[in-house]
Amino acid sequence: MLLHDRRGLRRFGRPRHLLRQTGRDPPTGPALPDRSPLHLPDIEPSLPDEDLLDRFQRAAFDYFLETVNPENGLVADTSRPNWPASIAVVGFALSCYPVGVERGWVTRDAASKLTLAALRFFWNSRQGNGDDVTGHKGFYYHFLDMRTGLRAWRCELSMVDTALLMAGVLVAGAYFQGDSEDEVEIRELSEALYRRVDWRWAQGRRPTLRQGWKPKSGFLYSDWEGYNEATILYVLAMASSNRPASDDSYGAWTATYQWENIHGYEVLYGGPLFMHQFSHAWIDFDGIQDAFMREKGSDYFENSRRATYIHRDYARQNPHGFGGYGDGLWGLSAGDGPGNFRARIEQQPRRFSAYAARGAPFGPDDGTIAPWSCLASLPFAPEICLPALRHLTECHPEVIGKFRMPSGFNPTLKNRRGFGPSGWVSEGHYGLDQGIVVLMIENHRSRLIWDLMRSSPHLRLGLRKAGFSGGWLSQPASPLRPGYVE
What we know:
Helix 3 (87-103) packs parallel to helix 5 (159-175). By secondary structure, this protein is an alpha+beta fold. The longest helix is centred in the first third of the chain and has 19 residues, at 49-67. Helices cover 38% and strands 9% of the residues. This is Glycoamylase-like domain-containing protein. Residues 14-43 are annotated as: Disordered. InterPro entries: Glycoamylase-like_cons_dom, UCP028431.
């Protein structure tokens, strides 16, 4: 994933209108001020919410069918030509295939074949500390050649991207529970791949997990510290029956957290929204708490809801006067930008960036919105995410194209430097963006991925070893719903 800057509750209950939409009990305590769904003027909905979500979700899902190499199951990091595969994107793909089956977008047989191709590839690919390999110690290089599967761009062996891959591997094993030879093999490979990862090695001599490793220089300087998308990394590392991370690793990580009061919200800070979304694609944090959140009287689901509102409120306040920001247009995250240049716009000097992990409220911010981020927060705050989606659909149709979200767009550059009425719009699409859209829409609609992972003994063990308790984790694992098994 990304190396990024980090800075980093009183308990607030969820608004009543949110309870009706999620159907789940909130944490107890004083309520946030009522935030009823906003109504954007002069915008008439053309599609019911479910139909609108279905179109965006289907378009995002199709990314994986369009960019996968069916011979080895690898999926391109981006739709741009000649781009390598991202192991994290493969993890998202493996998690999205069950969604496609349940929604009728791909047959179970086709999904199982794509899944099996990926699992066989990773199991049989070369591991070692040389150059012409795919991984080492059960971890995999961040980017792989789409055809050969070998390390691309001399990139790092990535701990968090391997964790995202393993999350998808475990989803596959949980979903494909049939008796066919393919589905039996999927389950066997899922277990074998997860057991092979040497999480203890990835700590080096420290309790926290390292961010990456290269064969000639060794571990990268940085550890995974400060709140971010690495929750799934620590949980899966703690659960391993082979070479788990040490028992003090999770506590060492949470000791680096930063708690802040932002716009009146007490929150565990992470600037870009993806930090509050990625681990949540697989783990339902609603109502379960670790020691840190028990002390704060909150949980990570509630924290992500507050982070979503912080981004909305930041856009409302729009302290830097960027174009388009407001109730219906918000959401900063990691993604493309218009480029590294300066321009004077409406008598104000502006400095723009290319790819960056943008965040609110402490920045960086150059006016670039990540339009997919509102959909990725849908389970946390549908009452503000759905109106934001409608605003995009009605006011920026050139951005969403055929219902597939780009990495970003910058309306401050509207009709400038050769850009159109929505300003600069990113070319192509990223698999990470499409994957988180598919999974979070599905968790909002049916809880499919959350339910599958709740049934995973590895996830449950990892959460308990990390100190989580309460909520669904205190109950026995539920049997899989009918329909998951042929």
